[in-house]
Amino acid sequence: MKFHHTSDQTADHSPSLEDLEHMINQLTEQFQGDEIALLSLLRLLERSHQTIREQHFQPTLPRDRHRLYALLREIEAAGGWPYIPRIPLRQFLKQLEPKE
Q1: Considering only CA atoms, which of 57, 61, 76 is closest in space to residue 4?
Q2: Sequence-separated (6 or more) residues with CB below 8 Å from residue 21
Q3: CA distances from 76 to 5, 39, 80, 84, 90 (A)
Q4: Residue 17, class by beta-carbon neighbours within 10 Å (0-12 exposed, 13-18 middle, 19+ buried)?
Q5: Residue 70, Cβ neighbours under 10 Å: how many?
Q6: Cβ(46)–Cβ(40) under 8 Å?
């Protein structure tokens, strides 16, 4: 996954979006086979998504149609609205069924 917008790293050496993606991938690999740790990571990502959306993104939504149009073009060009889907409970429970 590539990010279209990254800010330059500042003098405090804050991580870029690519650095964050790399760290998440490293944790995913580190937690491989540990369903509790992976579930915790998924919960963290979901909480972070909700916090960013509600507290930071929504307040910055454009108030004029030119900026709104630019935002909608970016959403369309970059693959749509960010969404974190959940596994349906029935699909999750199928994992418990004996395999033939």
Answers
A1: 76
A2: 1, 3
A3: 15, 30, 5, 17, 32
A4: middle
A5: 11
A6: no
Q: Which two tokens stand for residue 12?
A: 């405090």
Q: Which residues contact 26 (CB under 8 A, 6 or more apart)?
A: none
CB 43 within 8 A of CB 35: no
pLDDT tens sequence across 69-100? 999 999 999 888 888 787 777 877 777 777 76
Specify whether the CB–CB gap between 68 and 62 falls below 8 A.
yes
The pTM of this model reads: 0.70
Cα–Cα distance measured from residue 51 to residue 2, given in angstroms and rounded to the nearest whole number: 22
Task: Give residue for tokens 């003098």.
Answer: 11
**More confident: 64 or 86:** 64
